[in-house]
Amino acid sequence: MLAAQAVWQTAQSVLFFAPLPEELDIWPLLAEALAAGKQAALPRFVAATRSYEACRILDPEKDLQVGHFGIREPGTRCARITSGKLDLILVPGVAFDLRGGRLGRGKGYYDRLLGELHGTTCGVAFEEQIVGEIPIEPHDARLKLLLTQTRWIQVKD
Predict the structure, then answer these.
(1) Which of the chain's termini has less CB crowding within 10 Å, N or C?
(2) Statement: 2-41+83-154 belongs to CATH 3.40.50.10420
């Protein structure tokens, strides 16, 4: 469904995430993006600063390793994206609402990363992860789009 959207078709750079078993599997889109000549990136955890940074991926087979939280992430050979500009940012979470609210895993790492990046944010979820309302705090990043296995949602302001 994402590949049919204009935001995907026009994106030259995309931040992916390595889905956990309980998350919607967007992994096949990484190979599709690279084959189409898009710049692909994934978050890498930096233990020294307890934060994520976006790093470019050229070859998933060679560039990825198991990271700090047991999640696939870019290895040290992958360059950090220093501009902070990505056309499309795919965002995991535990729950989402139709106002762009997102409930993460509770440490705020992803919200801090989103605060440093510029681009269209798209939450990726199973339909049952969409809830009535997520409490939003000032540091929480709001999403612009939501993708589920059955629909594409433009967030209401």
Answers:
(1) C
(2) yes
